[in-house]
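re: ur question from earlier - yeah i can do the single chain one, its not a big deal. heres the input i used so u can compare w yours
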Amino acid sequence: MNAIGNKSRRSLCALATFAALTVLAPSAMAQDVEPVSDLLATADPAQGQTLTRQCIACHTFEEGGPHRVGPNLWDVVGRPKASREGFNYSPVLLELGGDWSFEDLNAYLANPRDFAPGNRMAYAGVRAVDDRAALIVYMRGLSAEPVDLP
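and the output i got, formated as tokens:
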């Protein structure tokens, strides 16, 4: 991609971040994140898909999709953290280890900076636990073999 395209993509991500900071972020994000596991069975994946509009400036969701500022999110639920080939992850994410469980995704979506201090994701997080559940259930379905719900 040329320098103008990269600059435009960064501007788009900055705009998405500003929107997240002004609309979605609470005034003070609590360290404790409300668990999402009990909400997943009744969460609406269509609502989750709608909520991805705030993500598409930086991520793609389709199988084999390209990386953008953030990695492609196809098959992310249950996948090892920082494992998408060809993406330059933050060192802190590379050091986390483990798989993206439902609760890890919940905590990361609630506040990426609290979950992994020093990561490069410039997004304030999704405040409402119901919205996080919907996003996670939607992303769970983006797999040839979705992980079982808890």
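DSSP finds six helices and no strands in the chain. not sure if urs matches, ping me
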